[in-house]
Specification:
Helix content is 40%, strand content 13%. The strands form three sheets. It has a seven-stranded mixed beta sheet, sandwiched between helices. The protein has a three-stranded antiparallel beta sheet with strand order 9-12-11. The radius of gyration is 21 Å and the shape is globular. It is of the alpha/beta class. The chain folds into two domains: 143 residues, Alpha-Beta Complex (Aspartate Aminotransferase, domain 1), CATH 3.90.1150; 236 residues, Aspartate Aminotransferase, domain 2 (3-Layer(aba) Sandwich). Helix 13 packs across helix 14. It is built from 14 helices and twelve strands.
Amino acid sequence: MNPHIQSLHPYPFEKLANLLADIKPHPEKELIKLTIGEPQHAAPQFVKDCLAQNLNGISKYPLTKGDPALSEAIAQWCKTRFSLASLDPKSQVIPVTGTREALFAITQTLIDSNGKDLIISPNPFYQIYEGAGILAGAELHFLNCDANNNYQINYKDVPNSVWERCKIVFVCSPNNPTGSLTSLEEYGFLIEKAKTYNFTLIADECYSEIYFNESKKPLGLLEACEKLGNEGYQNCLVFHSLSKRSNLPGLRSGFVAGDADILKAFLLYRTYQGCAMPPHHQVASILAWQDEEHVLENRHLYRKKFKAAIEILSPVMSISHPEAAFYLWPKTDMDDETFCRELYQQESVLVLPGQYLARSVNGVNPGKHHVRMALVADEINCIEAVNRIKNFILNNIKTP
């Protein structure tokens, strides 16, 4: 058995189940879950129709590289969305079965199993970054994102001794759970470091299409590369998905794009891994990437929910509007585990303790005294949930 399996941490939702194992939600209130970042808006009907009309695709083995038409659609979407001058669908794009498996797989591709490689990750973080690194035999180096630095990372504080061992830097922009964005200046610094120390800069951009100001789209890494003269995207990869953008988490459809040399090795790895996207999913994905109307409507729904939620909660807790993504990341005056337990018991609302999404660095867990609220349910349930949270705070916490 892989000895690194014993080093994996319990997943946040396993910790949550243990936290709540001995208590019950309020029996007279329907349970509302704001824990898992699983989109609940309706999937586009045209995607469902396409899937039904192309089920004969299950009679064929799909190519690991995918149908060229899908890579073409992805490349065209990237060019339009991020104003890219060029992106070769043949060498700079690989369709994947969701970013979760692809983030895990790219880590196994890039990390040397000698045990000396290092991965830099934001803290809090998407748990796959850590799990993939542990199973690849790498050391994790976490960089705290907390209220003291406005939930941004100061990469300039990282010593050269860390950069020298670094093989991967994970950037999540828009960030899960803080909603913060990586700036062009920050990307410029990281691209230069990647060139100097020959590591791969991996941008997890699965929330890039959930933003609140139509005139301020989140910056993408490939977009930053072109602005800064790295036209071949050397040492840079982006990961995108239809899960959040198009409310299609069950389709398991996304892509990786960027440095052609890295993707050549990644494709070889995937050939042996055996995770090609089903043909009917590929056909449906082409349609999803080619349509923006449903994405605009999706953002409109989130915009309404966030406006209402923040108006309700801001008088009773420290909360701010995220720059993008669909999470609220408020500070709590009580311990975050206690907040979660008591809220569940008194108001039948589930949120996730922030400390479960982070690790302690120098004795500080930047997720403590925060909770993550995923506003993924419909508007009625989200507003009902935040009203219950407000009621809970008024009944349990002394507010100014």
